[in-house]
């Protein structure tokens, strides 16, 4: 479950409790990853990270927020982790001294002080020194279902609440909560090591890892809830992980495809919000504010994906190609919309999804007009996965507006505003409803 500051009270908006909650939300993935390297159990690591937050709640209101709150939380969490490991080792030694045949029940041995925290063993030569990436691969172990892998990694690495994960995965919140609890228990029961695997094991987990990194970036790129449209720290984590993974697996086309997609998406960040933090839609963005170095990195990653891909382009490579079409265009109207329609048709053939069909309808509206696109959108009205998806009525409202059906468009924008949980997005949708008169 998500940790909140003094859940039974009402902290002042600008008080220390709010500062602690904000810092913890940002730092919790790194805390969990750093502590998991010591205790080798992601469930216990999350508990110790939460213990560090409780310590902050007790001390920061009296002593003030430290200059480096993230480092304070990490130090506190790691000290508790080291104490736990030492207690385990003392317990194991006592069992051995007493001559009890309980070796199978004893916790795994933790190597001596070879690492900076005193509890790291020799590094695997094929491993990489990135705790967050270890956390992703651990949470994406094949002993878990695909749905559980995604939910657990979004919780641990993305720092998302169960409600946010449920929104991102289009499933009930109770389902997500059950998946997370069962996943942590399974990892502990199976003794899954905290590591980046190699060889066939790495290949088996790659699909889930790519999906998780994409969802983490996407949550930062367009937050599902809250008062902020963007969560830059999640975008940075997702982009950094994609780059690290591309360096780790240079022969995998989809790894480069994901990196290309995130580079090109991240290039628009500065243009996606206005002076008050309000969302700016793609059609209205000032393209002079798009980050050209990131665009060049995206094009280079897309070229690498195409060079090493076998069996045709994968889903991430195709989405990156769509993003490249936008990056190549001088304006929204000048975009090669027929090419984007063709790319979405390929994508729908590779990975059928009502969300992909909705995106294809948007491209069709620009290539062939809103009337044809409206027929495609109306065909999605009964899709269960889109029942509470706010972008369905949002897109439909835009098409109705362009067709001059203002009253219907207003109703769709209002319905979309009622479905979204992001305050900034709600404002823009209500604004569009108001434009309908």
TrEMBL record:
**Region Disordered: which residues?**
102-121
Query: Which keywords does this chain's UniProt record carry?
Result: Sigma factor, Transcription, Transcription regulation
Q: The RNA polymerase sigma-70 region domain covers which part of the protein?
A: 28-90
| DUF6596 domain ranges (all copies) | 205-305
The RNA polymerase sigma factor 70 region 4 type domain sits at: 137-187
Ranges of compositional bias, category Low complexity: 111-121
Coiled coil is among the record's keywords = no
Tell me which domain of life the UniProt entry assigns to the organism this sequence originates from. Answer: Bacteria
Q: Which residues form the signal peptide?
A: none
Check the record and name the SUPFAM superfamilies matching this protein. Sigma2 domain of RNA polymerase sigma factors, Sigma3 and sigma4 domains of RNA polymerase sigma factors
Family, per the entry? Belongs to the sigma-70 factor family. ECF subfamily.
Query: PANTHER family of this UniProt entry?
Result: BLL0085 PROTEIN (PTHR47756:SF1), BLL6612 PROTEIN-RELATED (PTHR47756)
- For this entry, the protein name equals Sigma-70 family RNA polymerase sigma factor
Q: Which organism is it from?
A: Streptomyces rectiviolaceus
């Amino acid at each position: 479950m998500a940790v909140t500051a003094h859940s039974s009270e009402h902290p002042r908006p600008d008080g220390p409790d709010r500062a602690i909650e904000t810092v913890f939300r940002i730092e919790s993935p790194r805390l969990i990853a750093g502590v998991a390297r010591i205790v080798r159990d992601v469930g216990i690591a999350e508990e110790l990270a939460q213990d560090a937050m409780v310590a902050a709640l007790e001390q920061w209101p009296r002593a003030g927020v430290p200059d480096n709150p993230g480092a304070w939380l990490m130090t506190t969490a790691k000290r508790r982790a080291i104490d736990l490991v030492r207690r385990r080792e003392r317990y194991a030694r006592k069992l051995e001294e007493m001559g009890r045949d309980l070796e199978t029940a004893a916790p795994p041995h933790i190597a001596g002080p070879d690492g900076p925290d005193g509890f790291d063993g020799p590094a695997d030569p094929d491993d990489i020194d990135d705790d967050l990436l270890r956390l992703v691969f651990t949470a994406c172990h094949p002993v878990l279902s695909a749905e559980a892998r995604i939910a657990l990694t979004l919780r641990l690495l993305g720092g998302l609440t169960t409600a946010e994960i449920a929104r991102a995965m289009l499933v009930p919140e109770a389902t997500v909560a059950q998946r997370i609890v069962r996943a942590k228990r399974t990892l502990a029961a199976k003794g899954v090591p905290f590591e980046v695997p190699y060889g066939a094991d790495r290949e088996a987990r790659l699909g889930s890892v790519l999906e998780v990194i994409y969802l983490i970036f996407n949550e930062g790129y367009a937050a599902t809830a809250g008062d902020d449209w963007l969560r830059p720290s999640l975008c940075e984590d997702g982009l950094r992980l994609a780059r690290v993974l591309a360096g780790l697996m240079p022969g995998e086309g989809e790894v480069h495809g994901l990196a290309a997609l995130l580079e090109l998406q991240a290039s628009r960040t500065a243009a996606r919000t206005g002076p008050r933090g309000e969302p700016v839609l793609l059609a209205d963005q000032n393209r002079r504010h798009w980050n050209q170095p990131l665009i060049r990195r995206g094009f280079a990653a897309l070229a690498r994906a195409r060079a090493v891909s076998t069996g045709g382009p994968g889903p991430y490579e195709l989405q990156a190609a769509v993003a490249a079409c936008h990056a190549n265009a001088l304006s929204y109207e000048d975009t090669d919309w027929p090419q984007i329609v063709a790319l979405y048709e390929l994508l729908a053939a590779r990975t059928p999804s009502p969300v992909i069909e909705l995106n294809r309808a948007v491209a069709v509206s620009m290539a062939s007009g809103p009337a044809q696109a409206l027929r495609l959108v109306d065909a999605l009205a009964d899709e269960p996965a889109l029942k509470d998806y706010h972008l369905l009525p949002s897109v439909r409202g835009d098409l109705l507006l362009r067709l001059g059906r203002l009253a219907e468009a207003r109703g769709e924008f209002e319905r979309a505003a009622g479905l979204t949980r992001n305050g900034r997005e709600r404002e823009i949708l209500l604004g569009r409803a108001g434009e309908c008169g």
